[in-house]
Amino acid sequence: MKFQPDRFDAQAITAYGPGWVAVDGEKTSASTVLSSRGQRFDWQCSSFADLTAAHFAQLADLQPEVIVFGSGARLRFAPPAWLAPLMRRRIGVETMDTQAACRTYNILAGEGRHVVAALLLEA
């Protein structure tokens, strides 16, 4: 029995591994922001220590329903103050390791949700 949709209208994460993801078959090792509405850009951080409040404020401008934050190889949470711009706009944030975030993004995007994946990819 087939459970996947025949057609995926949003950008999809087609593969991932330690320190890289492939979006629609295009592999990258740079931290990436990916939206189910078609936006994709490098997230200017190469480690969790590089992240700042500005990285999360930038995500608010995309106005998604929910942001899936992939925090790298292990689960790490952003300080609550950094998430304040998102909370003010009533944007949900789910934090998980990057590989789990890839899977979750695909599920939500496949359901037609306006989701943004902010994926931290560390070397």
TrEMBL record:
Top-level taxon: Bacteria
Gene3D superfamilies: MTH938-like
Signal peptide, first to last residue: none
Pfam families in alphabetical order: DUF498
Protein name: Xcc1710-like domain-containing protein
Originating species: Melaminivora suipulveris
Lineage: Bacteria, Pseudomonadati, Pseudomonadota, Betaproteobacteria, Burkholderiales
